[in-house]
Amino acid sequence: MLSGRSTVVAVKEQAACNLAEEVVILNVKAGVYFGLNPVAARIWNLIQEPKTVDEIRDAILDEYDVDPDRCEVELLGLLRDLADKALIEVKDETAS
Asked: d(Cα 43, Cα 81) in Å, to the nearest integer?
């Protein structure tokens, strides 16, 4: 379950390449490519080091003109999608 205090980080078993403002990610284990639009690419770049969901949200709100509620909903959706594709690790705030 993702929350604002959950920590996320990109997994090591992937290869990513910046293409203009977008990012293409190869899931090494699955051998499948994924493409990210410019905002999702920015989020991907932020999570190369562990960050909380709140930290990511705040960075996006500082950089883009977006409604805070919409930002949070779309951020959580993207992070769930990346987790489902085994591209990120999620640690719940209660994990030790």
From this structure: 13
Q: Within 10 A of 14 (CB to CB), how many other CB atoms are there? A: 19
**Three-state secondary structure call for residue 27:** strand
pTM above 0.85, yes or no: yes
Q: What is the pLDDT of residues 5-61, one digit of tens each?
A: 999 999 988 889 988 889 999 888 888 888 999 999 999 999 999 999 999 999 999
Backbone torsions φ then ψ of 74, nearest 5 degrees = -70, -35
CA distance 58 to 61: 5
Domain regions of the chain by residue span: 7-12+39-89
- Name the 3-class secondary structure at 44: helix
23 by Cβ neighbours in 10 Å (0-12 / 13-18 / 19+) ranks as: buried
